[in-house]
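PT: before anyone asks, these are the final sequences, not the draft ones from last week. 434 residues across everything. Please model them as a single complex and drop the result in this thread when it's through.
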Amino acid sequence: MPRPTWDKLDSARRERVLHAAMAEFGRHGYSGGSLNVIAREAGVAKGSLFQYFADKFEFFAYVAEQTSLAIYAEMVPHLDGGPRAGETFLGFFQRLVDVWIDYMAAHPLERAVTAATTMELDPQVRQAVREPVHRLYAQGVRPLLEQAVADGALAADTDVDALLSMLVLLLPHLALAPFEPGLDSALRLHGTRGRARSTAAHRLISVVFAPHLVVAP
Amino acid sequence: MPRPTWDKLDSARRERVLHAAMAEFGRHGYSGGSLNVIAREAGVAKGSLFQYFADKFEFFAYVAEQTSLAIYAEMVPHLDGGPRAGETFLGFFQRLVDVWIDYMAAHPLERAVTAATTMELDPQVRQAVREPVHRLYAQGVRPLLEQAVADGALAADTDVDALLSMLVLLLPHLALAPFEPGLDSALRLHGTRGRARSTAAHRLISVVFAPHLVVAP
DNA sequence: CACAAACATGACCGGGTGGTCATAGTGTGA
DNA sequence: TCACACTATGACCACCCGGTCATGTTTGTG
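LR: through. Structure below.
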């Protein structure tokens, strides 16, 4: 909820401010990000920032939301059709994540902001920033899940809301994982030789070991 | 590397300082944590903190390392024997994670510090704090991996170092996941009906969907 | 007891923070 | 040309930060 002034702003100026804010908040997160730095880098007086946003939190929340929207806009074309002909539901989501990862690779600024919001420690800030993301998921992903349930690809008793919440939490981690030093594709994680059935933590563990297991558990 | 004074300290006082530091750093992370608050909560003059540690970073690194050591000490008895008779290597690690999760449930302070270090944004701080953890893994977990390779439980061409690095990155997330609001066990993630083979991201996705998939991909 | 070494203390420092506000500038419509 | 609403600006505010240091206290030792 930026002030009306923000929308009436000269777009070049608005872009400069947004860009500087993404860079600063992306580097240092919400509490560590400095409004002084943002104003300086954007070539704008600090006072101006408070003409656009009520306070630092609203500013950060706006930056986070805009970033989510930008990513979402990139995903929409791939969401639209649902699974392609002959594509499994799982394969469909795998493809979506690949698209997201490619986007992250091409947009370091958006990636940094995503990381900053994902890594946010303060529960209040984290939740407030996750809420609009949740809305986007509810709009773009929820119908896909419901369709999958209707098609029989997902179990009829699937708790769609719970599944949606989990996706909101997990997918950013997945999209960011390839850019974590030490977790890159050089680890030869492609291909699997094993499988496991167990609790959630167990299955995540199996993900780690799958490419290395000779004997299926 | 705390100053010598720290070790010669009255243990009650030392414990108060450590406790206050874990609480504060656990809540607000490294950059957000306040030495003033720590000193006040510990009932100690701020100047004293600088008699024990050279600066804030060394202090934080020490707190993080002590927390890792405390957790590690709890795990040692379960690491010692390696897999039990009849236990698969994967099942063994699954059991370790369960132990870790139980520990986290019983020790919110250690859990908060783990979260703060895991969520740390600054790459330098994150890496510096992860290094001693890596050493612990190299000491406690690496032999298990090597043994598994020798036993044929893991593929002979397994890159043990890479696998170790990945475990250092992933396991804390797994241990913390059950305490993330919205990711709790109420999601009925136990039991699985499907399996998938694909890239790392794909397999993580399969973890999300496994309990819900009716038809194996 | 005397002396010294070690330690605890909190006032103090420079600097950075989010946020405010009086002022100056700008654009618009009559 | 004037008047008015709007916006850009940066000096300024109170506050908090990590870190220092002179001082007083405690402790160990001969």
